Amino acid sequence: MTPPTVMLVDDEAPFVETMTKRLGKRDLNVISAFSGQEALETLDKHHNVDVVILDVKMPGMDGIETLKKLKTAYPLTEVVMLTAHATVESAIEGMRFGAFDYLMKPCDMEQLMGKVNEATRKKRDHEEKIREAHVKEILAKRGF
Amino acid sequence: MAKNNQLTDHYFRSLNRNIILIIIIVSVIPLVLVSSTIYYQFRVAYHEKVYDHLRELVNSHAQNIDHFLQEKLSDIRFLSDSCGLNKLEDEPFLQERLAALQKDFGRDFVDLGVVNDDGVQIAYAGPFKLAKADYSDAEWFRKAIQSEYFISDVFLGLRGLPHFIIAVRNSRENGHWNLRATIDFVRFTTLVENIRLGQTGFAFILNNKGELQTTPITRPSIDIIAGKTIYTEFLAKPSVSPSEVRIAVKSDSSQQENIYAAAFLKNGDWLLVYQQRTADAFADLGKTFIITTVLMFAGLLGIIMMAFTLSRQIVQRVAKTDEEKQLMSKKVVETGKLASVGELAAGIAHEINNPVAIMVEEAGWMGDLMEEITFDESENRVEFERAIKQIQTQGKRCKEITHKLLSFARKTDATIHDVNIKELLEELVALSSQRAKYSMVEIRTDFQENLPFLRVSTSELQQVFFNLINNAIDAMDQDGGTLTISSYQKENYLVFAVSDTGTGIPEANLDRIFDPFFTTKPVGKGTGLGLSICYGVIEKMGGKLEVESTAGTGTTFLISIPLQTDANGQH
User: Is residue B115 one of the residues assigned to a domain?
Assistant: First the structure.
C-alpha cells in the first residue's frame, strides 16, 4: 500500500509545521494549508489526497463550512475533524456532513495515526469498489 | 451584618410608624371634619327649630291670653249694653247675671260691680263685702273713666288679694257709669302657666313697668328678678307688630344660661315672658352631642386599632418580600457568577488550548527526533526523554483542564427526552463500581418502586450524578465506606439523595461548595467546577441541589427534579 497522502488544515502555523514534520517522519505524504480557502485550492491541484485533517475553529471559512464544500467537490476524500471544542455538537455536525471521525486537540499521535490509516483504508476500499464496478461495466460492454 | 440588621430594624420601625400616621391622619381628619360639620349643621338647625317652636308657642299663647281678655271684655260690654244701668243697679239682678256668667264661663268672673262717676260702687255682686265701696282714689278707676273700656294691672285693692279688673264705661243722661268685673286671678295664672315645656320652662306676665302680673307657681320669683335687665330690654323696645316674639339668651345670677321668649299682650301693656334653661331646651341636642362624640371616639379607637394592625401586617409582608428579594438576588448573583465564570472559562480554554497543542506537538517532534539519535547513550539522553515525556504528560493535563472548563460552559446535548432514570443510575453505578472497589467503597441503591420517567436532558443528568458519585467516592478515599443512592417523592418533585459516610464538609465550607473553582481537593486533582456545574444544570431543570453535612458522619446531596415540566419549560 502506498503511504497515505494527508492534507493538514489549521490556522496555527507552528502546529501545522510540526505536525507536518511528525507525520512525514511516519511515512505519510503531507500537504499543508493554513485556511479553508487554501485547502480547497490546494485540493484542486492534488487529486490524490486521501485524508484531510481539518481544524474546526478557523478564521474566515471555518471547519464545518470547508467540510461541506470539500465533500461536495471530492466525496471520496475522507476528513478527520480536529477540534479544540469539547462540544459534542460540532463533532456531531461534522459527522453529519460526512466527516470520518473527530479528535480533540491536543491529540495523541498514535490515535491520530490510527484514524488516518482507517480513513485511508476506507477511502481506498471505496475507490477499489468503484474501479471494480468500472471494470465490470467495460467487460460487460465488450461482451466478456 | 449586625449593623445591617439594625438598619433594617430601624427602617421597618419607621415604616411602621409612617403607615400608622398616614392611616390615622387620612382617616381621622375626614371623620372629624364630617362629624363636626354634620354636628354643627344639626346644631344650627336644631337651634332654629327650637327658637321657631318657642316663637310659635309664645305667639299662640299670647294670642290665647289676649283672646281670653277680649272675650271677658266683650261679655262685660254686652252685659252693660244690653241691660242698662236701671237693671244693673238692682243687686239681685246683678247677682243673677254673675251667676249666669259663671255658669257659662266657669269661675272666670269673681264679682261684678256698678260704679258711678264719683267712684262709688252703687251695686255689687260677689263674694266680698264691697257694696258702696269708694274707688274714687283707685288708680284703675281714674284710668277707666278716661276710655270706653279698661283692663287694669294686677293689684291688691280693697280686698287685699291680687286681682285685676275689666271695666266698661257707659253714658247716661247726666254723665257716665261703669260696669266692672274682677277676673279670677288663680284661673288667669293657670292659663299663663299652661305653656310649661321641659323641666324648667315656665311663663309669666309683666306689666310695662316690669312688675310681675302673675307669679309662676313652680318657680321662685328670685329667678325672674335676677334676669330683670332682659325684661327691661324687651320693654324698652315696643313691639312693631303684635305677633312679634323676641328671643334672647342670657345667663342668670347662678351663671346658668336661660332662653327668654317674650311677646306683648294687651296692646303692649303686658309682656308675656317664657323662660327656660338653655340646657333643658337643648337637652336632645346634648344627647345627640354625647352620642356623636361617643361614636366618633369609638370610630377613632377603631381607626387607631386598625392602623396598628394593618401597618403591622403590611410591614410583616414587606419584611417577608424583602427577605425573599434578598434571597432571590443572592440566587441571581450566584447564577450570574456561574454564567460569567463559564464564559471566562470558555474563552481561556480556547486561547490556551492551541498553544498547549503546539507545545505537545513540539515535544512529540523532539521525541521523534530523539529516537533517531542512536549513538549517544549518555545519561543526558535518559533525562531528555524523561523531560519530553513530562512535557507531554503535563500538556495532556492542561488539555483535561481546558476540556473540563469548556464542558462547564459548553452547550451540552440539551435535548429533552423521557429519561429512564433507573436505567441511567444503574449504568452510572456500574461504571463507578470499579473505582469504588479500589477505594473500598460499597455502593448501595435504594430506589422507590416504579421510578417515573423524567423529561430532562440525559447527558446533563448523567454529568450531575457522575460528579456527585465521584465526589462521594473521593470523600471516602481514605478509609472506605458506604455510598447510598436513594430516591423518594416529595410533593411534585422526585428527590434523589446521594449520601456518603465520609469525613463530611466543615460548616465554614458549606456555603461555598457550589462556588466555581472552590475545591478542597489537592492541587491537580480537582478543578472546583464539578459542583457548580451540577448546581447550574439542576437549576436549569427547575430543580434544586442542596447539601446536608455533619463533620465526621458524612454528607448527603439532595437533588430535587420536578416531575412535570411544561412544554415551554426552562430548558
Answer: yes
